[in-house]
Amino acid sequence: MSGDTPSIIAFEDVSKWFGTFQVLRDVDLSIGEGECVVICGPSGSGKSTLIRCINRLETHDRGTVRVHGVPLGPGERLPRELRGKIGMVFQSFNLFPHMTVLRNLALAPMRNLGMDKEKAEETALSYLERVHIGDQAEKYPDQLSGGQQQRVAIARALCMQPDILLFDEPTSSLDPEMIREVLDVIFELTDSGITMVCVTHEMGFARKVSDRVVFMDHGEIVESAAPDTFFDAPREERTRAFLNQILHYEASA
Amino acid sequence: MIGLFRRPWVRRALSNWIQPAAIAGILVFAVMRGAENINYRWQWYRVDDFLFTSENGAWAAGPLVQGLFVTLEISVLSLILTLVIGLATALLRLSSSVVGRGLARGYLELIRNTPLLIQLYVMYFVLGPILGWGQTTTAIACLAAFQGAYTSEIFRAGLRTIPRGQVEAGDSLGLTRLDNYRYVILPQVLRNMLPPLTNEAVSLVKNSSIVSVIAIFDLTTQGRNLIADTFLTFEIWLTVAAIYLAVTLALSTAAAMAERRRAGA
Question: Do A112 and B174 lie within an 8 Å CB cutoff?
Fold first, then answer.
């Protein structure tokens, strides 16, 4: 898939260290426009760091990251107009607790897209409808369930009309009964044309939604394949071991 | 009878009203007795005129109320400046700039480890003439520099309570750094800081009495001048203290109400 479309995100020989610990090892990865890529791997394997290097919440130390064709060297931040075009959904939601849901959504479009309040709130409401919580607009985040908060966070990212959406373990801090509602919302976005990169442990979701699954271990990309190939015929021993662990667990759960 | 004291409303009334009233009563009694012992002749009736005067039916502020206005003016202006200095210092201390951190730290230690009165003298006799500042400007700058040092520590603690994720969320939405502070971080910091900030405002009002040493006609100066004229030492000082108390209690009450309103939101 990545070969057919122009790449919107590209890692070229990217390495990063936290002190003496190398979190990313010569990562090469190209993600095509509109592609949905799931990144999985054991904890500490560098998955989160990798996607945080895309919107530059982290910067790398060697190599080049290309976003929208803009080459970013070590330590370089994103130009702000690009930053708004890359939405991010966090594990811990990170909604602004002192604002209503509606204001959470409307703030960035008002400040950055030049929308007036009315237009921004109208847009915000339409995205809230899209994630099925139009009736919660006037509430504060702590009045919502975890699943609802995460859906608000997704709607908030969508309000900036991003080309790329990054999900950093979006369901990892949710109670089990709420995981489904969030994954459903993400699934509904797959035909929106937005490029999606999702770090997750939800393998059923990865198989159903992604165009490609990337497996990371110890800071390097071990295997990258279409979901059917990845799950049914993994090439690498390390992938098999990981899948064994995680799928075995899922089967017994 | 003992059971009565266990009832919640009785206990609440006791702790809220009856105890303070009893303590105040004892204090007043002690002062009166003490004054009696030294043959002090109370002349409370003369104090009215120092608060308000009326000429031909028109009310005007007496010296004490005029002094109160000066105190309030100095307090309000230096409170605003205190917040600016406090925030700027806190941001510098948390910044990645070595020079910035050093400057902030130096300022903080200098202010915290020298007496306020000496700071005021240095500003009034040394810096004031160099910079061409008058008394009022010097007074405001001095109070703000003093209180700003303490307030910066409150801001610093407040800024640290904001989870990193909040900043990152603002960043990832493309907010500028300024917008991130203005809409996301500072409102949360200020909400957490309301109780300690009230304390700072209260000490600022109280500390403002020190400007009386550089011939500013604030509440304290007016009180002292009146005593020099009238020898009503007890009445005037008690009145001046009561006025300060009224101002600071009003501040605390307003802050408590604001906090309750926000907690309800």
Answer: yes
